[in-house]
From TrEMBL:
Positions that bind ATP: 9-13
Broad class of enzyme this protein falls into: ligase
A biological process term (GO) from this entry: folic acid-containing compound biosynthetic process
Protein's name in the database: 5-formyltetrahydrofolate cyclo-ligase
Key words, A-Z: ATP-binding, Ligase, Magnesium, Metal-binding, Nucleotide-binding
UniProt organism field: Microbacterium saccharophilum
Catalytic activity: (6S)-5-formyl-5,6,7,8-tetrahydrofolate + ATP = (6R)-5,10-methenyltetrahydrofolate + ADP + phosphate
Keyword Transcription regulation: no
One example GO MF annotation: metal ion binding
Family: Belongs to the 5-formyltetrahydrofolate cyclo-ligase family.
Required co-factors: Mg(2+)
Superkingdom of origin: Bacteria
Length: 195
């Protein structure tokens, strides 16, 4: 990665992180409710029976209510577990499973661990992002886990990033290894993107 791109990504992430930390609890609750409605509609529209999602942090658009409800509806939801080698293991979500702190402080399920290959049979990938541009390029949080996962899949299903409305932007800094997404889910809408 060139220094210019690296610096631009770092600056954009810092700005987005600060904006997220300034959101009120009421705004975050409303965002989670909106994201749940959008994800419910997307899952129904795509006929999803198996998918991946992520356990949201306290400053992200919430996914936890959606995950709980999806599990109760009989959808198999895989949750990521970070590994030191840069790959993701997976665990099947359970409605009342315990949550622990992963390698980088991200919430992860306490459950039986499945290999990185477990995600190969899902109908939909729902992943975190700092921002996404209108061509589908995603700015992650800098560890590369989801870029590696998407880039390694032989037959990648649709990939949607969960962001706040203001984080769908005109352009994000990009490098060769960065992987695009097919769309974004925000608290107010689901947008399909072409790349």
């Amino acid at each position: 990665m060139t220094d210019g791109i690296d610096n631009a990504k770092r600056a954009m992430r810092a700005d987005l992180r600060e904006r997220r930390q300034q959101r009120s609890a009421a705004a975050l609750d409303a965002a989670e409710e909106g994201v749940k409605a959008q994800l419910d509609r997307l899952v129904d529209d795509l006929g999803v029976r198996s998918m991946s999602c992520f356990l949201s942090t306290t400053t992200e658009p919430g996914t936890r209510e959606f995950i709980r409800d999806a599990v109760q509806r009989g959808i198999r939801v895989l949750l990521p577990i970070t590994r030191a080698d840069g790959l993701l293991d997976w665990a099947v979500a359970e409605a009342d499973a315990d949550v622990t702190e992963g390698i980088f402080g991200m919430p992860e399920p306490v459950a039986d661990v499945l290999s990185p290959l477990a995600v190969n049979d899902v109908d939909l990938l729902v992943i975190p992002a700092a921002a996404v541009d209108r061509t589908g390029m995603r700015l992650g949080w800098g560890r590369g886990y989801f870029d590696k996962t998407i880039g390694s899949m032989e037959q990648c299903p649709p990939v949607y990033a969960v962001i706040f409305d203001s984080e769908l932007v005109d352009e994000v800094p990009r490098d060769l290894h960065d992987q695009p997404v097919d769309g974004v889910v925000t608290p107010t809408r689901t947008v399909s993107l072409t790349h």
